[in-house]
């Protein structure tokens, strides 16, 4: 006798076929669906340059009154040349800003400053108050947050 004697609805072949059809149907249901809507807030990580572009732009805006010596957007470094305040010609400042990350975070920004005072016909190093550097960091971070907030039109 050739062939199978099972002719019922629940044969092994029919069960395997039904299982494969169910698995294929489940796989296909995941293919469709709605696209996700855009976020209301602008992303904190903007990488059109090597570092966070909000921090970069805010740093340049904040230091725009000082002459730039070096700026490297890929490495995230801004170095100003010596700046002398016309109201205080016996003192000059130099600032370095380093952006350390692609995210808009407070720890992604490092500001250092050097100060010199006129002495004996030349310039002598003088200490920089910690509050000066902290204030610069706060101004840059506030400006960066404003730029991010304004980038979505709100």
From TrEMBL:
Domain of life, source organism: Bacteria
One Pfam family matching this protein: DUF3576
InterPro entries: DUF3576 (IPR021959)
Protein's UniProt name: DUF3576 domain-containing protein
Lineage: Bacteria, Pseudomonadati, Pseudomonadota, Alphaproteobacteria, Sphingomonadales
